[in-house]
Design brief:
Helix content: 55-70%
Order of helices and strands: HHHHHHHHHHHHH
Shape: elongated
Largest sheet: none
Oligomer: single chain
Strand content: under 5%
Structural class: mainly alpha
Number of helices: 13
Length: 200
């Protein structure tokens, strides 16, 4: 009887080793905002691997992931100061994902003081590189009157010519463009739409 009490349950023996995420997997997890949930669902097995890739190998997507784990205390003790520093390191290496995330933090005032002009500064380079989430956020900010007026036309052009993989994002972009149209001369909007027709 005593032996059966100390025998481990079969479910504990069934825990499977988890492979580290590929760059493609990690981008998809970040885009779908499932990265922290995935780390937890993997029973926090990859914490040391993620930390090593972020802190030692300095891989931008892992700096993003490790930074967010520290920001929110996912599988580790929360340390937003270190987490945000890692996010900025990823930005310095050109990570569009990190640029968008920090811009979102400044947009909402999460971990930092709300500063929508600073959000524009972070998201503009990511938008220029072709990142669609960055372009959506940038046009939202422009529509609210933040950023430089001379960039409004460029932001409108980028998003108007975007390719959308889902209807929800396309609808959101359409609504944001309608708001931004109110801040751009109609002749410029007409020219952008005409250029789009010619380029097809």
């Amino acid at each position: 009887m005593l032996l059966t009490l100390v025998t481990p349950l079969p479910s504990h023996a069934e825990t499977e080793a988890v492979d580290i995420y590929s760059q493609e997997q990690l981008i998809e997890l970040i885009r779908s905002k499932q990265y922290l949930a995935r780390v937890v669902s993997d029973d926090c097995q990859l914490v040391q691997d993620i930390e090593a890739r972020a802190e030692v190998l300095k891989q931008p997507l892992y700096q993003y992931l490790w930074g967010e784990m520290l920001n929110y205390g996912t599988c580790v003790k929360a340390n937003p100061q270190r987490g945000m520093a890692l996010m900025r390191d990823a930005v310095a290496q050109g990570s569009a994902e990190a640029m968008v995330r920090i811009a979102e933090y400044y947009y909402h005032g999460t971990f930092v003081f709300q500063d929508k002009n600073r959000a524009v500064q972070y998201v503009l380079p990511a938008a220029a590189s072709g990142d669609l989430p960055a372009r959506v956020l940038l046009v939202r900010l422009f529509g609210e009157g933040y950023g430089s007026y001379r960039d409004f036309e460029t932001g409108y052009h980028w998003l108007y010519n975007g390719i959308f993989s889902d209807e929800a994002t396309k609808k959101e972009a359409y609504e944001l463009l309608k708001v931004l149209e109110q801040k751009i001369p109609p002749s410029i909007v007409a020219r952008i739409k005409l250029e789009h027709l010619k380029s097809r």
